[in-house]
């Protein structure tokens, strides 16, 4: 199985500051078709996860441009510029390269 | 508007069985792969399995952690996704979500249903 390892945030993050969340995969997620199958989700308190970023760097429909994804085949970063109260929750990375599909353990964001 | 609504959760004794349903609306159900994902309280989501779309013969894949105990199926006339869970254990206690698959991501999730396995 592909293991997804996420980093922690130095919580709480002051409102208006930027935050970067890291994720590392145990295998390259770069497919032969050129796409990197790494996704990011946000789970707000009491809610289901929602898609933020797919294919490593493509924002999902309706997602603020304050969210951006970047990385290589095995090392990835989700950057949130100018964090706001609505960004509070747990962020998960997830690989879609091969079965079984796997998630990272999550990174909690708190706002000051 | 895409909607996914799970039902069928509850309290079940160890060794028991339960069938969850997920009613889908707002899209052409047969065009999409569908998955079940669970999340134990305070933990990360765990993918359980997928059932492919009509074009791919509605075949299935499972996480080895549940293969042989859990079965995913779909009723394409009523747009319902199912998860049959057998020989349940305490560690199966979780919120269970159904999710629609886009081209390499889960683009819509249901609100989830709680399953508690306890005597």
Given as residue ranges, the uncertain stretches of chain A (5+ residues, pLDDT < 50) are none
- Rounded to an integer, what's the Rg of chain A over CA atoms? 13 Å
Radius of gyration of chain B using CA atoms only = 13 Å
Major β-sheet annotation of chain B? 7 strands, mixed
What portion of the residues of chain A fall into strands of 2 or more residues? Answer: 35-45%
How many helix segments of chain B? 0
Structural class label of chain B: mainly beta
Distance between the termini of chain A: 37 Å
Give the helix proportion of chain B (percent range): under 10%
Helix and strand pattern of chain B: EEEEEEEEEEE
Q: In one word, what is the shape of chain A?
A: globular
Low-confidence stretches of chain B: none
- Output mean pLDDT of chain A: 97
In short:
The complex is a heterodimer of chains A (112) and B (119). Chain A has 112 residues and is mainly β.
Describe what you observe in this structure.
The complex is a heterodimer of chains A (112) and B (119). Chain A has 112 residues and is mainly beta. Chain A is 0% helix and 41% strand. Chain A contains no helices and ten strands. In chain A, a hairpin with a 3-residue loop joins strand 4 and strand 5. Chain A is globular, with a radius of gyration of 13 Å. In chain B, 36% of the residues are buried. With 119 residues, chain B is mainly β. At the A-B interface, strand 4 and strand 9 of A face strand 5 and strand 10 of B.
Keywords:
heterodimer; A: globular; B: mainly beta; seven-stranded mixed beta sheet; four-stranded antiparallel beta sheet; 11 strands; 0% helix
Topology:
The complex is a heterodimer of chains A (112) and B (119).
Chain A: E1 4-6, E2 19-25, E3 38-43, E4 50-54, E5 58-59, E6 67-71, E7 75-80, E8 89-95, E9 102-103, E10 107-109
Antiparallel strand pairs in A: 1-2, 2-7, 3-4, 3-8, 4-5, 6-7, 8-9, 8-10
Chain B: E1 3-7, E2 10-12, E3 18-25, E4 34-39, E5 46-51, E6 60-62, E7 70-75, E8 80-85, E9 94-101, E10 106-109, E11 113-117
Parallel strand pairs in B: 2-11
Antiparallel strand pairs in B: 1-3, 3-8, 4-5, 4-9, 5-6, 7-8, 9-10, 9-11
């Amino acid at each position: 199985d592909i293991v997804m390892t996420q980093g922690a945030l130095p919580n709480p993050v002051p409102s208006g500051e930027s935050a970067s969340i890291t994720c590392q995969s145990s295998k390259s997620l770069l497919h032969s078709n050129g796409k990197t199958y790494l996704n990011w989700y946000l789970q707000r308190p009491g809610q289901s996860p929602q898609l933020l970023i797919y294919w490593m760097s493509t924002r999902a429909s309706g997602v603020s441009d304050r969210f951006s994804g970047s990385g290589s085949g095995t090392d990835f970063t989700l950057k949130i510029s100018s964090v706001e109260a609505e960004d509070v929750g747990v962020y998960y990375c997830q690989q879609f390269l091969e079965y079984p599909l796997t998630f990272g353990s999550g990174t909690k964001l708190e706002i000051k | 508007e895409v909607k996914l609504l799970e039902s069928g959760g509850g309290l079940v004794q160890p060794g028991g069985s339960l069938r969850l349903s997920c009613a889908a609306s707002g899209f052409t159900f047969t065009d999409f792969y569908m998955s079940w994902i669970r999340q134990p309280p305070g933990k990360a989501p765990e993918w359980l399995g997928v059932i492919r779309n009509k074009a791919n013969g509605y075949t299935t894949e499972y996480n080895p952690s549940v293969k042989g105990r859990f079965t995913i199926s779909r009723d394409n006339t009523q747009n319902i996704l199912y998860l049959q869970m057998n020989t349940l254990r305490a560690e199966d206690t979780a919120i269970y979500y159904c999710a629609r698959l886009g081209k390499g991501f889960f683009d819509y999730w249901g609100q989830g249903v709680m399953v508690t396995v306890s005597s």
